[in-house]
Design a protein that fits this description.
By secondary structure, the chain is mainly alpha-helical. It has one domain (2-78). The chain is built from five helices and no strands. The radius of gyration is 12 Å and the shape is flat. The mean pLDDT is 94.
Length: 79
Amino acid sequence: MLRDAIERYPNYGPAQSMLAFALLVSSHVGWIPEGHHYAYAAGLAQRAAELDDEDPWAHLALGYLAFAARRTEAAVREY
């Protein structure tokens, strides 16, 4: 549903940020191959933050990506 929402409404940030976070969590718990969707999720989260810098899901996803890359200061800023 989120992919469909992004396709139909490319400027609707919440769909992008929620999909980014869902992909990261799915990877973390083993539902999808780990790291396989990191670049896509990063792009979605960044776009969502550009559309609405107050979107908490975007910053949660960006924080997770920074944490996974061991960029502690960036993770703290995003979280």
